[in-house]
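Supplementary Methods S3. Complex input for the MRU-bound model.
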Amino acid sequence: MNVEGKHYRTIWLKPGNEKTVQIIDQRPLPHKFVIEELKTVEDFEKAIKEMHVRGAGLIGATAGFGMYIAALEAGKENFEGFMQKAGERLKATRPTAVNLAWAVERQLEAMKKGKSPGEKIEIAFKTAKEIANEDAEYCKRIGEHGVKLIEEISERKKGEAVNILTHCNAGWLAFVDFGSATAPIYAAFDKGIKVHIWIDETRPRNQGARLTAWELAEQGVPHTVIADNTGGHLMQHGLVDLCIVGSDRTTRTGDVANKIGTYLKGLAAKDNGIPFYVALPSSSIDWDIRDGVKEIPIEEREPEEVKYIQGFCNGEMKKVLLTPEKSNAANYAFDVTPARLVTGLITERGICKASEEGILALFPEKK
Ligand code: MRU
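Predicted complex, serialized as structure tokens:
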């Protein structure tokens, strides 16, 4: 997508040096646009854990490139052992988004076909690029399928703006390009359909206020940032036509783990009869689990992220204390929205019911 009119992906190989990976460091956004270089497995671990990169798809793509860099680091002795350990290190960085483990396993599986470390490095290089390209392509297709939902509402409203509520950042910054929840929005905007996006600020890290707002502003899409608890009120007053959110892990039965607060939006949408869609590439589906509330590990992050708030002041990023110093804080990063609250899933293969039957109709090879 565009940054000041120039096209970027969120991760790429450094031109002229294929042993270095470049990323957009998302921490100082929207105030500073910084490109960071990752050269060692440790750089990759840090970038994922400390959220220089974030979002399920991008975490997966980063892990894919991380495994390629690990293959370069591995000596000829005990190549497999080194790669297993590198995979474990990367997988331990963040627990909820299943794309991370999926990308590591995909790399390990692909490398089995290589007969020598040299061949394995080549495979890892190719696979890392494939994972990233696939992520971008699947998000584009999510846009092509999801735009139909927006088109229908626009026709019903006789061309009046379609109000869409989204939570956190399931935009191109959370993937390699296009985003999941934002892909249908960008596709609608490009077709000239009038849209207006309500963006939940998404405490404590404010991915909505900082990142989704920045993305939409850069693409010129009309939007309004709202405090996290505003959505229910807007829905009661007919100001939301559709909710589209992302997913960090979806069970084979259609339960969805997404940024903390998504569940409450799902409840409010159900109560107000508003369609609540979840957009996700299939790399976010955990085919091995059925009960999201019981089985999806929910990341707990530092309480400091709740106690302090970060922003830009006099040309610098500043962190200020919000709560009494002595107060405890809890920081659950995700919650699970049960399938019964989800109107449908928008995937790269089409839109389906949030149920095992619905998902398997699109992905019959997973039966
Ligand atoms: O903690 P983050 O920022 O990595 O959380 C992921 C998210 O951005 C959201 O949960 C998003 O809606 C999921 S779609 C990648």
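The chain has two domains: 2-134, 144-366. The pocket of MRU is lined by residues 54-57, 168-170, 174, 180, 207, 245-248, 258-259, 333 (CB under 6 Å).
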